[in-house]
Amino acid sequence: MVEELVTAGVVAASGCVAYVLAAARVVKQYERGVVFRLGRLRNDVRGPGFTMIVPFVDRLRKVNLQIVTMPVPAQDGITRDNVTVRVDAVIYFKVVDAADAVVQVEDYRFAVSQMAQTSLRSIIGKSDLDDLLSNREKLNQGLELMIDSPAIGWGVQIDRVEIKDVSLPEAMKRSMARQAEADRERRARVINADAELQASKKLAEAAGVMAEQPAALQLRLLQTVVAVAAEKNSTLVLPFPVELLRFLERAAPQSGEQQVAGSQGGSEAVDPQAVESRPPPQVESSPAQPSQAPEREPAQAPPPPQAVPPLAPPSVPPAA
């Protein structure tokens, strides 16, 4: 009798252990358990930790609540300004309602992936090439709203969507490179012209100062000579300013006028125009000075020899 009781107890304990092993489930911290009892959804979603279900009656399905990073395959499209591009993106999403993610959609990952591809092609057709290249933040926000609208009913929340790369045809890349090069060349020419304008203004101011003070030009010339002589050159090129020639031309008539004024006593005022129009003085020979030799008349040149006519050849009688 005792042996039968012991055997029954062992069998019952074994059955309990088997039942516990069959009914025991462990849900991780980042998971939630959705229980189906005879195919019907239970309202209580099992949280993380140890939980029990009815074996062969209940079915527990675990749903991951972590943020999922899913790459969106590259999509070919034509922008609004008729440029063929190839764009790929990446999407970050997570499950916020485990029951809806299991019941409302068959495979929420596949559904989100297909919705992301469709929305990406749609956003390409509505945007210009410049927006795809420089205004990606705005396009990312629009793409996130397009994907998040249907995903809310699936218990999925779109956390972030970003466009990774925009591939352009080689011809378009070369055209953009030429455009950028032309724009840089235009800016370089404008800057060079502005520099020439500023330099011309400064040179005009310097010329005005040198015109007021002619000695400044000489000092500048000496500075140039010093700068050239500092180099180890065997030849020194010395520029001769035109202003110095003009200064000498103006100084020459003044010295001539001073000599004429000194010969007349220096008290009378001399008119420069009268001095210039006055004929040069002529020297006359005086009879009171016999020691001076009279001027010799130029010798007359001998007459040219007369030309001698050439002799005619002798005439020869004709033969008989």
Short characterization:
This protein has 320 residues and is of the alpha+beta class.
Description:
49% of the residues lie in helices and 18% in strands. It is built from nine helices and eight strands. The relative contact order is 0.06. The longest helix has 43 residues, at 170-212. The strands form three sheets. It has a three-stranded antiparallel sheet with strand order 3-2-5. α3 packs across α5 (136-151) and α6 (170-212) packs across α7 (214-230). It has 320 residues and is an alpha+beta fold. It is rod-shaped and about 160 Å long. It has helices spanning 2-23, 98-103, 108-126, 129-134, 136-151, 170-212, 214-230, 242-263, 272-277, and strands spanning 24-27, 31-37, 40-41, 49-52, 58-64, 68-78, 84-95, 156-167.
Keywords:
3-stranded antiparallel β-sheet, 9 helices, 320 residues, alpha+beta, 8 strands, single chain
Number of helices: 9
Uncertain runs are 265-277, 280-295, 307-320
Order of helices and strands: HEEEEEEEHHHHEHHHH
Largest sheet: 3 strands, antiparallel
Kindly report the average pLDDT value.
78
Derived from helix and strand composition plus strand pairing, the structural class reads alpha+beta
| Radius of gyration (Å) | 58 Å
Strand order of the largest sheet: 3-2-5
- According to DSSP, the number of beta strands is 8
The shape, in one word, is rod-shaped
The percentage of residues in β strands lies in 15-25%
Distance between the termini: 198 Å
Q: Which range best describes the helical content: under 10%, 10-25%, 25-40%, 40-55%, 55-70% or over 70%?
A: 40-55%
